[in-house]
Amino acid sequence: MQVSNYCSGRLHHALTEELKVFEKENFKGTMQDQWEKVFTNCFQMVDDEVGGRIAKNVGSTAVVALICSSHIIVANCGDSRGVLYRGKEAVPLSNDHKPSREDERRRIEAAGGTIIQYYGQRVCGVLSMSRSIGEQTMQNLKTGHIVNI
């Protein structure tokens, strides 16, 4: 099974499931907090599902955009990138999760990982992105997914 194929066929269903669960909860917080919870749970669900089905060193990055009447909500994991073309300008909708980002470096090192320079900066000398779905060999370094609203 290719993780990327699984993600492309599953993430939107997982998001629908999480939205149904969320509607039943009495969650307090800002709109951003609410969307972060929904998307974090969605990405975690798919990551958990992938975990038992693939080789431990296989993973994928992902980006999901939900277009509402007044907002575009984007969640990403890894270095998949969401971009909106408006007029004559490309507007970034997400931030790549790369080990070269200082905040990602700190997070990885706090989790016990290292960044090694090997054809670019890599997590433990292996991954060129700092977050992924799957990639069970790096599981202890994955601490959630970022949601950009």
From TrEMBL:
<dbReference type="InterPro" id="IPR001932">
    <property type="entry name" value="PPM-type_phosphatase-like_dom"/>
</dbReference>
<dbReference type="GO" id="GO:0004722">
    <property type="term" value="F:protein serine/threonine phosphatase activity"/>
</dbReference>
<protein>
    <recommendedName>
        <fullName>PPM-type phosphatase domain-containing protein</fullName>
    </recommendedName>
</protein>
<keyword id="KW-0378">Hydrolase</keyword>
<dbReference type="Pfam" id="PF00481">
    <property type="entry name" value="PP2C"/>
</dbReference>
<feature type="domain" description="PPM-type phosphatase">
    <location>
        <begin position="1"/>
        <end position="149"/>
    </location>
</feature>
<dbReference type="InterPro" id="IPR015655">
    <property type="entry name" value="PP2C"/>
</dbReference>
<dbReference type="InterPro" id="IPR036457">
    <property type="entry name" value="PPM-type-like_dom_sf"/>
</dbReference>
